[in-house]
Amino acid sequence: SYHPDYEPSFKSPTGNSSLQLQASTACDRIQDQSFKDACIFDVIATGDVTAAESSQAAATESQETEQLTTNSIPVFETVPSNISLQYPDTATLALQATDADGDELSFFVDVSQLPDSLHANIDDTGLLSVQATSEISVDDQVTLTVQVEDDLSSAAASITVLLKADALTTTRSPGTSTSKNGLGVPAIGGIAAGACVLILIAVLAIRHRARAPRVKPEMELNEI
């Protein structure tokens, strides 16, 4: 008849004390008692100590599966959706994460896809540092991926980094210069610079003429 409370026993008594000792020694590393009993049974039943290896492998696989099934995945608590940087700015963010099992957590940041104009690193406490390392000519947008993990699982989050172009780099056209000439006016270079100087001289001359006092011409009176 069916007995739902029945639990099979893998203990197999043997008069061979030497084999019993070998079986116990070979299966001693197995923590789960039911798998340890099965391991000892296999060794005694077969008379082969190497049978313990397959029992240990089965026990290890079962324990890992159980841990993965019951393990809680860590969760990020504070991660900004985006940050804005312009060379040579540096942003420092204190990322936080929790684990329901109380496992020790480790933080990582993926830098494999970052451009040369951006540098990032994170320490064991979740302190993230992001730095714009060089000027860029046009605005750029970079996705930064951070990760937190325990021994068995991990969670990831993304931060959009908005890299702002340098103002002078954006407005400066190829072949121009930002150096100043003797008049204190930025020199553009070449023929354009000469034209600007001539226009400026003409404007100054007109202003000087306009400010000069006007003299009323004397009229000669003819006697009648």
The strand order across the widest sheet is 2-9-8-5
Report the count of strand segments.
9
- Give the structural class: alpha+beta
Biggest sheet record: 4 strands, mixed
> What is the straight-line distance between the termini?
161 Å
Could you tell me the strand content as a percent range?
15-25%
Query: What is the 3D shape?
Result: rod-shaped
Low-confidence stretches: 172-190
SSE ordering: HHHEEEEEEEEEHH
The overall pLDDT average reads: 77
Number of helices: 5
How does the SSE layout of this entry go?
Elements: H1 17-26, H2 33-46, H3 51-70, E1 75-78, E2 82-86, E3 90-94, E4 96-98, E5 106-110, E6 118-122, E7 127-132, E8 140-149, E9 154-164, H4 167-171, H5 190-211
Parallel strand pairs: 2-9
Antiparallel strand pairs: 1-4, 3-7, 5-8, 6-7, 8-9
Structure description:
Helix content is 32%, strand content 24%. It is α+β, with helices and mostly antiparallel strands and 224 residues long. The strands form 3 sheets. Strands 2-9-8-5 form a 4-stranded mixed β-sheet, with no helix packed on it. Strands 3-7-6 form a 3-stranded antiparallel β-sheet, with no helix packed on it. A two-stranded antiparallel sheet has the order 1-4. Strand 8 and strand 9 form a beta hairpin. The protein is rod-shaped. It starts with 16 loop residues before the first helix and ends in a 13-residue tail after the last helix.
